[in-house]
Design goal:
Layout: E1 3-5, E2 10-13, H1 14-20, E3 33-34, E4 43-44, E5 77-83, E6 86-97, E7 100-111, H2 114-123, H3 130-149
Antiparallel strand pairs: 1-2, 2-7, 3-4, 5-6, 6-7
Helix pairs in contact: 2-3
Length: 156
């Protein structure tokens, strides 16, 4: 199941949106209805109507290979942004409300030093999976690069 952020900072799946049977008007990223973001719209988009669609070219050596779905860390997830020359990080818990996931922030931290942020996450015991720590380390490198080059940072 893929989860997507909507305009109200809630995370929801496209399947959930389809089960609703109509648009909620909240500006959801994966709104499957036309006209997009118009409350109570019921016409489902066809694949050629999808906005911001991309063609994914799969290299030959990767065709017919599968990977495991992402495993969510039961301790939560991180929202990362750059603000006032610092890396700002928020640790959130999953709050399922009838198919909606809200960004329920439990704690925050900010620093120019990514090592300090990683230490904070470890000290506060906010990560239980090695893959999640590796992801956070990778994001810190992207954030530092954006700070250094004065470019926009977008969390992956």
């Amino acid at each position: 199941m893929a989860l997507y952020l909507c305009a109200e900072n809630k995370i929801l799946s496209r399947d959930f949106l389809l089960k609703q049977g109509k648009c909620c008007g909240s500006g959801c990223q994966m709104c499957p209805y036309e006209p997009k973001h118009q409350k109570n719209a019921q016409k489902k988009k066809t694949s050629h109507q999808q906005e911001n669609s991309y063609t994914i070219i799969i290299p030959e050596e990767l065709k017919n290979k599968t990977c495991d779905p992402i495993q969510l860390d039961p301790k939560g997830y991180f929202l990362i942004k750059i603000e006032d020359g610092k890396i700002c990080i928020a640790h959130c818990h999953y709050q399922n409300k009838r198919g909606w996931y809200e960004n329920k922030i439990k704690s925050t931290f900010n620093s120019k030093d990514p090592v300090e942020i990683l230490r904070w996450a470890k000290k506060e015991n906010l990560i239980s999976l090695d893959e999640h720590y590796q992801y956070l380390d990778k994001e810190m490198k992207h954030a530092v690069k954006a700070l250094k080059n004065n470019t926009k940072y977008i969390q992956e």
